[in-house]
C-alpha cells in the first residue's frame, strides 16, 4: 500500500508537496492486580498518514499555502483520500513554506533487541523481577502494575526525496506500592496485610529499553517513600530553599514551560515573548547559569528519534545557552515564518550539570520534595501551585516526611535562582542534573 | 433497529461477530468482540494562521477471551475478516477454563444508536465550518485592541463502534463537537490569556457563542494582567459550576472507579454506605445524560448507558465499574467500561460526572460571604484516590468582599486539602447548573472524553 499511495501522490499536479508515513506498531501489555493478572493483550497496528501541501495563492493576492492530512484505512480508495486532504489544504491561506529535503540521519540507538523477540515473555519476566524486588522490601506490597511494550517502525517518504526508516522500542510502566500501619489481617489474595492507615507510592516510567528500568533500585527507593508516608506529618509553612531530585525534578523539567516558550510555534502565535540572543529571565540570575538542549539524540531517550513526523533529522539543539535563548525549536512551517532553521520536534529536555555535589545542595534548613501529585505549571506565565505527595522538612541531619500542601512559585523565577548538582541522571524524557536547589520557593499547607 | 450506516468494512465484519464469539466460547467461558473507529476533524483559526487537520484516526477490532481468571485480548488493526478470524483462533488456542468468578454477559440486547443532532457536522461543508470559526475568531479578536492573538480551536469527534457477545449485538455512532476559545493579551509583565470551552455530544447547535460570552472572556484576560498570587490559607469560596465539576471529578469521580478498588488504591472502598460529606452533597455519573461531552449509548464492554448515583445526601452509595472489577468484586455493573481506543484495555472511567443542582439562588450564596474567593475557571486537576488529597488548579479567582465579587483577581489559585473535609464544608448549593467539556486520563494516560459540572457551591478550602 505504501508504494501504491506514493504512486498516487506522484501523479498529483495540484500539490506543492507531500509526505507519506507508514507507522507499524506491535505491542504487548500486562496488567496485574493483587494476586492475579487481570489482563494480557497483544496489539498490532499498521497505518498510513498522508500530509499534503498546496499553493493557495489567489490571483492578485500574496503567496499562500495550505496543508491537509488524511489517514486512509486499509482498502480505502487512495485517490479519494488524497482528494480529501487536498480539499482541506485548498481552503486555508497561510504564508508559504516548504518541506524538508533529504539529509543524513544520525545514529541514535532507539531499539532494545532484548524486547523485540518475545515481547510478552519479556514483560512477564520484568513483572516477576518487580515482584521479587518488592518482596525484598520490608513493610510494603505491590498493588497494581501495568507494563506496556511496543516496537514501532516508521517509514517516511516525501516529495523532495526523503525515503527513511526508523525502528524503536518503548516501555511504559506504572506500578503502585502500598504500606500500612496497624494489625495484620488477611487480604483477598490470601496474604497478610494490615488494617489501619494505608498509603501508596505511585511509580510511572517511560523508557526505551529494559536495561534502563532499574527495577530493584526504584523499588527500594519507592518502598522507602511508602514507609516514610506512614510517618508523614502535616505540611510546613516554608519560604526558602527547596530541593528537587530524581523523578520529581524530571517531572518539573518536563512540564512544558520551556518546551512551549522555546518553540517557534508559540513565538509566532505571540504567546512566547522570548527573543533570540536575549535572556530568558526577566529578573537577575542569582543562581547557576541555565543551559538547556532540546535533544532528540539522547541514546534510548523516550523522546529521541532519527527523524520526526516531517522528516527533519534529529539533533541536539542548544536552546538556552548561559541564560540566553540560543534557538527556537521549530517545525518546518514556523521555521519558515520566523526565518530560522527548522529543527524539528523538541525531544528530551537536557540540562547542563552544575558544579556542586548533590550532597552539598542539601546543606542547611530546607524542604525536599520527593513526589508531586502532578506537577503542573502554566506554560505561558510559568506560575504554579502544585500539590505535594511526599516531601521532607530538612533541619540539619533531621529529615521529617510530610504529605500535602502546595509548592508555590513561578517556573522561570525559580530557574533564575537555582543551583544544579554536578551528578547527572536520566529519566526517559529528562537528562541532566540529579538534583537542583531552588533558593526561594514557598510551601504552604 | 436503526441503520445509520456503519463504515463498509465494519458492517461486513459485524455480521461475522456472532460466529467469531461463539467460536471463542468453545474454548473459554466468556468472549466478546468490539469494533471501534475513532476520528474527526480539527480546525484552528488564530490571528496569524489557520489549520484544518484530520484528527488521529484509529480503527480496529478487540477480541476478548476470559478464562475464568484473566482477560486475554487481541487488538487487531482494521476490520478485515481474515486477520480477525486468525487472531481469534490464536487468542484462545493456548487457553482453557480455570476456576474463577463467572462473567455475566447481560440480558439480551440489540440496537443501533446515533447521537441526535440539530445541525450535524456532516451537514456542513468544511468551508462552512471554517467560515464559522473565522467569524467567532474575528468577533473575539475585535473585542479589545489589547488582544494580541485570538484562537478558535474547533473539533468534531466521531466514534463508531459495534459490540457483540452471546447476548448483545449493538452499534452506535457518537458525535461530539467542541470549541475552545483563547484570548492572549500582553502587558508590561508579560503575556496573559483566558479561555473558555464549549461543546457536547451533538452538532453545531451546541456552539452558539454570544458576544457577551466573548466579551467576558477577553475582559478576564485583561484583568489577569494585574493578577496577584493569593496569600496561602483557608478561605470561604464560591466554586462556579466548572470548578465544582473538577472537584467532584478528582475526588468522588476517580476515587470511586472500582478498578481502583480491586487494586486496593481507593480509600472510598472502605466507606461504602458511610457519610463522606455534608448532607448537601449529591454526586452522579451518567453516560446517558443528553448532550454531555462524555455521553454514549453503550460502553466498550457492551453495557447500556444509564445513571449511577455515587453519593446521595452525603452518603457514598456505589462506585462506577468496568467488567473485570465488577466481576472480581461481585459488584453490579455500570456502563463505565471505556477504552482510549482499540489498542488499550477497558478501565472503569467517568463519563458525565456532576454534583446535583441545589435550590439556593446563586446571589444568596455570595451574600453569605463576607470575605472569600470566587473560583470560576479550572486549569488542571489530579486525583489521589488513596490519600484523598485534592489538587485542583484554577486559572484565576476573584475576591469576594461583603457579598460582592470585586475586581481583585488572583492567578493561578491552587486548591488543596482532604476530600472529606472539603465535602463536609459544603454549606450551600446553587440553583444554576452546568457541564463542561474535557479529556480525562487514568494517571497520565488512557485519555477519554468526559464532562464534569454542577452548581455553584459555598464551601471552605485551602488555597495557595
Describe it for me?
- The complex is a heterodimer of chains A (445) and B (464).
- Chain A has 445 residues and is of the alpha+beta class.
- Chain A contains 11 helices and 21 strands.
- In chain A, helix 4 crosses helix 5 (215-230).
- Chain A is globular and about 75 Å long.
- Residues 183-195 of chain A have low confidence and may be disordered.
- With 464 residues, chain B is an alpha+beta fold.
- Chain B has helices at residues 8-14, 17-24, 81-92, 126-141, 211-223, 241-250, 258-262, 323-329, 362-367, 419-424; strands at residues 30-45, 50-54, 58-66, 71-77, 109-114, 147-165, 168-187, 190-201, 233-239, 283-285, 308-312, 315-316, 337-338, 347-348, 352-355, 371-382, 389-401, 404-410, 413-418, 428-435, 438-442, 445-463.
- In chain B, the strands form 3 sheets. In chain B, strands 1, 2, 3, 4, 5, 6, 7 and 8 form an 8-stranded mixed beta sheet that branches. Chain B has a 5-stranded mixed β-barrel with strand order 9-16-17-19-22.
- In chain B, helix 2 packs parallel to helix 3 (81-92).
- The longest helix of chain B has 16 residues, at 126-141.
- In chain B, 58% of the residues are buried.
- The chains are: A alpha+beta (445), B alpha+beta (464).
- Chains A and B meet through strand 1, strand 2, strand 3, helix 2 and strand 5 of A and strand 2, strand 3, strand 4, helix 4 and strand 6 of B.
- Strand 2 of chain A pairs parallel with strand 4 of chain B.
Amino acid at each position: 500500500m505504501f508504494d501504491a499511495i506514493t504512486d498516487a501522490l506522484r501523479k498529483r499536479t495540484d500539490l506543492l508537496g507531500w509526505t507519506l508515513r507508514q507507522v507499524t506498531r506491535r505491542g504487548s501489555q500486562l496488567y496485574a492486580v493483587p494476586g492475579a493478572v487481570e489482563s494480557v493483550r497483544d496489539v498490532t497496528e499498521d497505518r498510513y498518514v498522508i500530509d499534503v501541501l498546496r499553493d493557495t495563492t489567489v490571483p492578485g493576492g500574496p503567496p499562500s499555502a495550505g496543508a491537509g492530512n488524511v489517514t486512509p484505512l486499509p482498502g480505502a480508495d487512495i485517490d479519494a483520500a488524497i482528494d480529501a486532504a487536498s480539499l482541506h489544504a485548498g481552503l486555508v491561506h497561510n504564508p508559504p513554506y516548504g518541506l524538508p529535503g533529504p539529509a543524513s540521519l544520525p545514529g541514535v540507538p532507539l531499539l532494545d533487541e532484548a524486547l523485540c523477540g518475545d515481547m510478552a515473555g519479556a514483560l512477564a519476566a520484568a513483572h516477576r523481577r518487580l515482584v521479587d524486588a518488592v518482596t525484598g522490601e520490608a513493610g510494603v506490597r505491590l498493588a497494581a502494575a501495568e507494563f506496556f511494550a511496543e516496537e514501532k517502525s516508521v517509514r517516511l517518504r516525501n516529495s523532495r526525496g526523503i525515503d527513511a526508516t526508523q525502528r524503536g522500542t518503548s516501555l511504559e510502566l506504572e506500578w503502585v506500592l502500598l504500606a500500612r500501619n496497624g494489625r495484620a489481617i488477611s487480604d483477598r489474595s490470601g496474604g497478610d496485610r494490615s488494617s489501619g492507615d494505608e498509603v501508596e507510592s505511585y511509580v510511572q516510567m517511560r523508557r526505551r529499553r529494559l536495561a534502563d528500568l532499574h527495577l530493584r533500585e526504584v523499588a527500594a527507593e519507592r518502598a522507602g517513600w511508602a514507609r516514610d508516608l506512614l510517618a508523614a506529618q502535616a505540611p510546613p509553612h516554608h519560604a526558602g530553599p527547596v530541593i528537587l531530585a530524581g523523578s520529581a525534578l524530571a517531572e518539573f523539567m518536563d512540564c512544558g514551560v520551556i518546551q512551549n516558550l522555546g518553540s517557534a510555534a508559540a513565538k509566532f502565535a505571540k504567546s512566547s515573548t522570548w527573543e533570540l540572543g536575549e535572556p530568558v529571565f526577566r529578573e537577575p540570575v542569582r543562581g547557576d547559569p541555565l543551559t538547556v538542549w532540546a535533544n532528540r539524540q539522547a541514546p534510548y531517550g523516550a523522546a529521541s528519534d532519527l527523524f520526526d513526523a516531517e522528516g527533519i533529522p534529529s539533533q541536539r539543539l542548544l536552546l538556552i545557552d548561559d541564560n540566553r535563548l540560543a534557538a527556537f525549536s521549530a517545525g518546518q512551517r514556523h521555521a519558515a515564518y520566523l526565518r530560522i532553521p527548522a529543527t524539528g520536534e523538541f525531544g528530551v529536555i537536557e540540562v547542563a550539570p552544575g558544579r556542586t555535589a548533590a550532597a552539598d545542595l542539601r546543606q542547611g534548613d530546607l524542604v525536599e520534595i520527593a513526589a508531586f501529585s502532578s506537577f503542573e505549571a502554566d506554560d505561558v506565565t510559568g506560575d504554579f501551585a502544585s500539590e505535594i505527595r511526599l516531601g521532607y522538612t530538612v533541619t540539619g541531619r533531621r529529615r521529617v516526611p510530610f504529605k500535602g500542601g502546595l509548592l508555590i512559585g513561578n517556573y522561570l523565577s525559580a530557574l533564575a535562582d537555582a543551583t544544579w548538582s554536578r551528578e547527572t541522571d536520566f529519566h526517559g524524557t529528562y537528562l541532566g542534573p540529579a538534583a537542583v536547589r531552588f533558593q526561594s520557593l514557598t510551601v504552604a499547607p | 433497529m436503526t441503520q445509520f450506516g456503519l463504515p463498509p468494512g465494519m458492517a461486513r465484519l459485524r455480521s461475522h461477530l456472532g460466529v467469531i464469539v461463539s467460536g471463542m466460547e468453545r474454548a473459554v467461558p466468556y468472549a466478546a468482540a468490539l469494533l471501534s473507529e475513532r476520528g474527526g476533524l480539527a480546525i484552528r483559526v488564530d490571528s496569524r494562521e489557520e489549520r484544518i487537520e484530520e484528527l488521529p484516526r484509529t480503527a480496529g477490532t478487540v477480541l476478548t477471551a476470559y478464562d475464568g481468571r484473566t482477560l486475554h485480548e487481541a487488538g487487531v488493526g482494521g476490520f478485515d475478516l481474515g486477520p480477525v478470524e486468525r487472531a481469534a483462533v490464536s487468542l484462545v488456542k493456548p487457553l482453557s477454563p480455570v476456576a474463577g468468578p463467572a462473567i455475566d454477559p447481560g440480558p439480551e440486547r440489540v440496537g443501533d444508536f446515533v447521537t441526535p443532532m440539530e445541525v450535524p457536522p456532516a451537514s456542513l461543508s468544511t468551508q462552512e465550518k471554517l467560515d464559522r470559526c473565522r467569524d467567532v475568531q474575528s468577533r473575539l479578536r475585535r473585542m479589545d485592541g489589547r488582544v494580541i492573538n485570538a484562537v478558535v480551536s474547533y473539533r468534531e469527534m466521531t466514534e463508531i463502534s459495534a459490540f457483540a457477545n452471546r447476548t448483545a449485538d449493538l452499534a452506535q455512532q457518537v458525535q461530539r463537537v467542541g470549541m475552545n476559545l483563547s484570548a492572549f493579551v500582553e502587558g508590561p509583565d508579560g503575556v496573559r490569556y483566558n479561555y473558555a470551552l464549549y461543546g457536547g455530544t451533538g452538532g453545531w447547535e451546541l456552539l452558539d457563542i454570544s458576544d457577551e460570552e466573548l466579551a467576558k472572556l477577553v475582559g478576564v484576560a485583561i484583568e489577569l494582567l494585574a493578577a496577584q498570587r493569593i496569600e496561602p490559607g483557608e478561605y470561604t469560596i464560591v466554586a462556579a459550576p466548572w470548578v465544582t465539576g473538577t472537584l467532584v471529578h478528582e475526588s468522588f469521580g476517580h476515587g470511586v472507579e472500582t478498578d481502583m478498588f480491586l487494586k486496593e488504591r481507593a480509600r472510598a472502598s472502605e466507606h461504602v454506605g458511610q457519610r463522606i460529606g455534608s448532607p448537601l452533597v449529591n454526586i452522579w455519573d451518567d453516560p446517558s445524560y443528553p448532550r454531555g461531552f462524555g455521553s454514549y449509548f453503550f460502553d466498550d464492554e457492551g453495557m447500556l448507558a444509564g445513571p449511577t448515583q455515587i453519593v446521595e445526601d452525603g452518603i457514598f452509595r456505589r462506585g462506577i465499574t468496568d467488567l473485570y472489577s465488577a466481576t472480581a468484586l461481585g459488584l453490579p455493573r455500570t456502563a463505565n467500561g471505556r477504552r482510549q481506543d482499540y489498542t488499550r484495555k477497558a478501565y472503569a472511567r467517568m463519563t458525565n460526572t456532576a454534583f446535583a443542582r441545589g435550590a439556593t439562588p446563586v446571589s444568596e450564596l455570595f451574600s453569605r460571604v463576607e470575605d472569600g474567593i470566587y473560583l470560576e475557571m479550572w486549569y488542571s486537576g489530579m486525583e489521589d484516590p488513596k490519600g484523598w488529597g485534592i489538587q485542583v488548579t484554577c486559572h484565576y479567582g476573584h475576591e469576594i468582599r461583603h457579598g460582592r465579587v470585586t475586581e481583585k483577581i488572583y492567578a493561578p489559585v491552587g486548591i488543596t486539602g482532604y476530600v472529606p473535609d472539603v465535602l463536609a464544608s459544603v454549606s450551600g448549593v446553587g440553583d444554576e447548573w452546568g457541564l463542561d467539556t474535557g479529556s480525562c486520563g487514568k494517571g497520565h494516560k488512557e485519555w477519554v472524553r468526559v464532562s464534569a459540572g454542577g452548581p455553584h457551591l459555598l464551601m471552605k478550602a485551602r488555597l495557595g
